[in-house]
Amino acid sequence: MGVRVAVLAAGQGTRMKSSLPKVMHRVAGRTMVDWVLRAVGAIEAAEITVVTSPSGTELRDALSVGVASCIQEEQLGTGHATQVALTQFGDLAGDAVLVVPGDTPLLRSETISELVATHVAAGAACTMLTTHMDDPTGYGRVIRSGDGSVAAIVEHRDAGPDQLAVDEINAGIYIFDGELLAAALGNVSRDNVQGEYYLPDVLAIFAAEGRRIEAVLAEAEEVAGVNSQTQLAQVAKVMRGRINEEWMNRGVWMADPDQVFIEAGVQLSPGACIYPGVHLEGQTVVGEGARIGPDTYILDGKVGSNAHVWYGVVRQAEIGDGAEVGPYVSLRPGTVLQANSKAGTFVEMKNAVIGERSKVPHLAYMGDVEVGVGANVGAGTITVNYDGYEKHRTVIKDGAKIGSDTMLVAPVTIGERAYTGAGSTISRDVSDGALAIERSQQKQIPGYADRREERNRRKLEES
Question: Which residues are catalytic?
Answer without folding.
Answer: 362
